[in-house]
Amino acid sequence: MNATASATAANSSFYSQTQCRLSSDIRGSIPFSKMKRFLFFNDVHPRNSPLVLVPRAADPNTGKDSNVGDDEVQKQQRVMQQPPMSLSLDDVNPVGLGRKSRQLFDEVWRKFSGLGQISRTIRSDDQEALDALLVREGPMCEFAIPGAQNTTVLVVGATSRIGRIVVRKLMLRGYTVKALVRKADQEVVDLLPRSVEIVIGDVGDPTTVKAAVEGCNKIIYCATARSAITGDLFRVDHRGVYNLTKAFQDHNNKLAQSRAGKSSKSKLLIAKFKSESSLHGWEVRQGTYFQDVLATKYDGGMDAKFEFTENGDAVFSGYVFSKGGYVELSKKLSLPLGYTLDRYEGLVLSVGGNGRSYVLIVEAGPSADPSQSRLYFARISTKVGFCRVRVPFSSFRPVKPDDPLLDPFLVHTLTIRFEPRRQKPVEVNATTKQDLRSFKLILEYIKALPTGQETDFVLVSCSGLGIEPSRRDQVLKAKRAGEDSLRRSGLGYTIVRPGPLQEEPGGQRALIFDQGNRISQGISCADVADICVKALHDTTARNKSFDVCYEYIAEDGRELYELVAHLPDKANNYLTPALSVLEKNT
């Protein structure tokens, strides 16, 4: 036997031994997620290369190879006579090898991911096997998330198309799961694993949701109205979200009080305008951006007042006719002992009026030395009527560009300024003439929003695609009202607006995450469920709203999308890079 045949035989023997060891390991203790790299390793060996065998020692009695028949000897001789095939670059191309390994792994994954596809009909024996997997001692080691065993998640709408998949994904990752359902008949019970704690209640009833949030750390809201009746939409999509957020906040406050403290999820009250005395300390001032010499030339007059009306409203109103002029309402803050604004991520104002825009100014620096203070500003817009405006501290910019970024710890003065410039007409009665130089601002309260690293409440909303045009406006109005209730609750939130839902396996196609109501494709229920579960501990998902759908090619001039490849692998953290480029507090 020549040197080439000996080397090929040695390689074949080594590969056979290695493959046997790998097969034994895969059957034995190797975790499931490691199988992908082993499939890749096995695929390195070219399938079309000849198998070169080393002849065994001849039997001294017969002259033939021991334990080898005549047919086998002839086959071995024919194989040995064939010239060995040489390896080409295509046979060892890492791209091709990776594609082959992914194809093999995807086939295994599709079979395994059937655990999460609840939309198909499940036989009773399959259901028992699945439940046995979910209720056994300890979660699957490769799917467990650190801290999941100490986290209880309440799934609202657990029997919905997305909710059923969310429940099983949470169970596989080691979470304790509670399910809020309207009725617990046998059909509903059969849809959920036996280890899930079922709570019977109606999201429209505040008394029943209180029991549901007891002992919960996070909430995933998948419930949706089953009809387009206005009352049903209001009860589930709007009032239901409000009731859950309020009950969850009350539960957190109750726990904090038992520990002689205050919930970290509670807002800090800075000012509440409920009486005449609450206006004390607020100062009305006037000014101009021009020098004093030019101020008189363009002086058209300005005036403002801050008063408590007979209707029980604190109203800041007036007009500015002077070019370059402004009026403002200011106060030096007095926070409770032991509280500083660096423990909070922004401000929320509950205001009403005629829809003007304002400049919010904070003064930061050592309180003992006003000369060292610096000014920071952020522009806010209001609506006709009442609204709540969130202003994160990260949105404040220094008045002097060379000044450092705002440090909330040093904030000591708050100012609300009105200036005629940059005012835009609001949508009101077309016959009503608007004077953009006058304003009226009704103040209800100013609070600081608590900071946090993770999401407390995940809400599955909708993008409006796939809904019948006759009922789309009603549905979206209720959905957006529910979203607003969540934003102003003070809880860390993630709002997911998927495209039309499809019943197909998840993790098969790339996803688009976007803000701006521009998506045009659908998405599988399993992908939406996976996003909800991943968002629970993803810091980039906190306080963000986004649309999501399958990948597609954008139209010319509208290529403003963040494309993220969603590979069917537990270790693939596709959500962080997708959400890191999106706007916060949206």
TrEMBL record:
NAD(P)-binding domain: residues covered: 157-253, 456-538
Domain spans labelled NADH:ubiquinone oxidoreductase intermediate-associated protein: 300-399
Classification via SUPFAM superfamilies: Galactose-binding domain-like, NAD(P)-binding Rossmann-fold domains
Name the UniProt record assigns to this protein: NAD(P)-binding domain-containing protein
